[in-house]
């Protein structure tokens, strides 16, 4: 069943929100709203996305009734941009921790893992007006009770409800997520944001490959880069790209 828009708006109190049954991508609506003057904290929520976007041009699967797809409009200062992604992942981690999940971590840069499988993804899309940052649409997708039939996907993706073995109300999940996002948002620019993100990363200490760079992930930088040490000890910091396990693993 879709969201009850009136009930959800009541739960969101005064936060400006668009609640939609079906949309290509909540990101499109959030970016259009941003261009049209959306305030900081405005949200777009959809029951279903027909063309949900993931990082690196991938699609993000959001069938009706089983996932949370939300885009949050944020208006950070330009220098806080790297932390915007961090606070998205941290808010999700906090919510999962509070639900009693035991094995929650962040795979660099911002995949949230539950039991080593991806439960949630974060997609920040910035809107520039020349040199001026108009804002960011911070897209968050959470698998609540999505069934992954494809065996390859089933090995890499997970949903909260079956993993925790208890029913999850998507509206309540959204309210908790936005509460935690607000809390982190207030701390944007503080070292504590970076420290918290770093402390939840499961990538440090593992063998990785990002693009052509292969080695051991040894650290992250405050602006979100991943420091990779090659076998000869040379270190490189990568800022974007898809992370693969360096030894041919998952
Ligand atoms: C990723 O891990 O690749 C990022 C996935 C982000 C998915 C969310 S769902 C809500 C918002 N709308 C989209 O089209 N994408 C993001």
Describe the structure.
α3 (81-98) packs across α6 and α3 packs across α7. The chain is globular. The model has no long low-confidence stretch (mean pLDDT 95). It has helices at residues 5-11, 26-35, 81-98, 151-156, 160-164, 170-185, 191-200; strands spanning 17-23, 43-53, 59-62, 67-74, 104-107, 111-114, 117-129, 132-143, 207-210, 213-220, 226-229, 235-238, 243-245. It has 250 residues and is α+β, with helices and mostly antiparallel strands. The two termini are 34 Å apart. It is built from seven helices and 13 strands. Strands 1, 2, 3, 4, 5, 6, 7 and 8 form an eight-stranded mixed sheet that branches.
Helix and strand arrangement:
Elements: H1 5-11, E1 17-23, H2 26-35, E2 43-53, E3 59-62, E4 67-74, H3 81-98, E5 104-107, E6 111-114, E7 117-129, E8 132-143, H4 151-156, H5 160-164, H6 170-185, H7 191-200, E9 207-210, E10 213-220, E11 226-229, E12 235-238, E13 243-245
Parallel strand pairs: 1-2
Antiparallel strand pairs: 2-3, 2-4, 4-8, 5-6, 6-7, 7-8, 9-10, 9-13, 10-11, 11-12
Helix pairs in contact: 3-6, 3-7
The structure holds biotin.
């Amino acid at each position: 069943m879709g969201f009850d828009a009136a009930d959800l708006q009541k739960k969101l109190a005064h936060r400006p929100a668009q609640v939609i049954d079906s949309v290509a991508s909540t990101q499109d609506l959030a970016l259009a709203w941003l261009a049209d003057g959306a305030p900081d904290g405005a949200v777009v929520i959809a029951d279903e996305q027909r063309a949900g976007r993931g990082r690196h041009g991938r699609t993000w699967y959001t069938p009706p009734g089983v996932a949370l797809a939300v885009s949050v409009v944020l208006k950070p200062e330009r220098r806080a941009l790297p932390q915007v992604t961090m606070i998205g992942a941290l808010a999700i981690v906090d919510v999962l921790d509070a639900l009693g999940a035991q094995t929650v971590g962040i795979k660099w840069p911002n995949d949230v893992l539950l039991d080593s499988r991806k439960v949630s993804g974060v997609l920040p899309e910035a809107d520039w007006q020349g040199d001026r940052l108009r804002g960011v649409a911070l897209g968050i997708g959470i698998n609540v009770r999505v069934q992954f039939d494809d065996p390859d996907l089933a090995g890499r993706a997970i949903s909260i409800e079956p993993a925790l073995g208890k029913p999850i109300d998507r509206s309540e999940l959204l309210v908790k997520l936005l509460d935690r996002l607000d809390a982190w948002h207030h701390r944007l620019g503080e070292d504590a944001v970076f420290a918290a993100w770093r402390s939840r990363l499961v990538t440090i200490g593992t063998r990785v490959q990002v693009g052509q760079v292969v080695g051991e992930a040894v650290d992250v930088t405050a602006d979100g880069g991943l420091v990779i040490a090659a076998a000869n000890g040379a270190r490189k910091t990568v800022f974007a790209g898809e992370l693969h396990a360096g030894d041919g693993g998952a």
